[in-house]
Amino acid sequence: MIDNPVNDGMRRQEGDNLHPTAAFRTDHRIDLVDLPDHLRPALGRNAPKLLFGHQERRHIPLLDLPPVGVGVRPIVTHHHLTLIRDMRGHPGDELQIDAQGNYSEQYYIANPGEGWTRPVSQGGKFSDDFWPAPKAKREYLGLNLGLEKRFSNNWQGGFNYTWSQMKGNCGGLSSSDESGRNSPNVERYWDLWFERYDIHGQPLDGILPSDRSHYFKAYGSYAFPFGLTVGVVGYGRSGLPKTTTLSFNDMQMFPDGYYNTGERLPFVFTADLYLEYNLRILKKYSINLNATITNFTNTSTISSYSMQYNYDMLRMTDEQLFAQKTNYQDWKTLVANNPVTNKLNPVYGWWTGRNGPFSLRLGARLSF
Q: Among candidates 287, 267, 349, 343, which has minimal Cα distance to 310?
């Protein structure tokens, strides 16, 4: 049996009542609802909106398929996320002190911009004195192009390209604001009344930290007649946006919004290599030896920078922050005048991480 993971969409398998040249395809099935009119031009007025879907594994006889397939798939997702978020109310109300003098934090569990998180004048619990909590928003636009040659004449291959853009004010259940922190619904999003605003008093809404404009993947494998299979997968992807942050009032702030630098991390190219050898013993037994070399190109491209501008925290009162909307003071000037010892982060703009080195994984399997 040949089990080649190089091709994400196909595997060649025998037995279990399957055709000897059958394939498994993993299809991404999408639920459809109406798309708002202002997002229809690229797809036509009657185009649907594509939402989160599920994967379906289907058995398809390869003899019914052409040897080469080409696909084009536009993707538009435009929606307000429904999140159950932990949110603080009036500053100071969230701090509780027990009889022993221990502090604890307490939050509202609600959907941002809805229900209790609205101002009191709109039926919510939050004071009208503070900037209202924006609704969670994430908008994804994408175009995927694919070319695939199914397994025949001992080889298979394919190429995929995706252009995409991700905008909004929330990266989702894993926080792209915190380098992918995976603590669903309890990250720092909305933890203080100003957290989803920049220092100008404008709601955050822009290119998200997880955005990658271009993504390429090319793969191929060849099965030699003496039992050796060799496969290669190559990847290329745009770097993530670089956004300046401030240490501000016990929080992280994006003073000029997302992607204020207009720069990205370097473009990354890397490739993986797969080797597999099948040896049959007698008629009933076979031994499979395989090796996977991840990042066999040993790419060490920079993967992160230190983007916090200040070292010691900048603090402002609520009144001073409110005034930024009508009497704006440049935040760099505020940092320079901050009465602290270490005003600036000495490693601001320096790289802090690179792609990891290559790794080797060996495997063996006995079939009988």
A: 343
Answer whether residue 294 is part of any domain. Answer: yes
In a domain, 7, yes or no: no
Locate 307 and state its tokens. Answer: 């983007």
Cα separation, 18 vs 56, whole angstroms: 18
Residue-wise burial string across 315-346, b where 16 or more C-beta atoms lie within 10 A, e elsewhere: ebeeeebbebeeeeeebeebbeebeeeeeebe
Distance CA 243, CA 266 (A): 14
Q: Does the residue 334 lie in any domain? A: yes
The pLDDT tens digits of the residues spanning 40-98 come to: 343 343 333 333 333 334 444 444 445 666 667 766 665 545 455 555 544 444 556 66
Six-digit token string for 165: 């853009």
Residue 222 structural domain: 12-83+136-367
- Examine residue 6 and state whether it is found in any structural domain, yes or no: no
Q: What is the pLDDT of residues 277-305, one digit of tens each?
A: 998 888 788 899 999 999 999 999 999 99
Q: Enter the tokens of residue 361.
A: 């994984």
Query: Quick one: tokens of 64?
Result: 């019914």
The backbone region for 121, taken as left when phi is positive above 0, alpha when psi lies in -120 to 50, beta otherwise, is alpha
DSSP 3: -
Number of structural domains (the chain) is 1
Q: Are 204 and 189 in contact (CB under 8 A)?
A: no
Q: What is the pTM of this model?
A: 0.71
Q: Tell me which of 62-66, 128-132, 272-276, 329-333 is least confident.
A: 62-66
**Separation CA 230–CA 278 (nearest Å):** 12
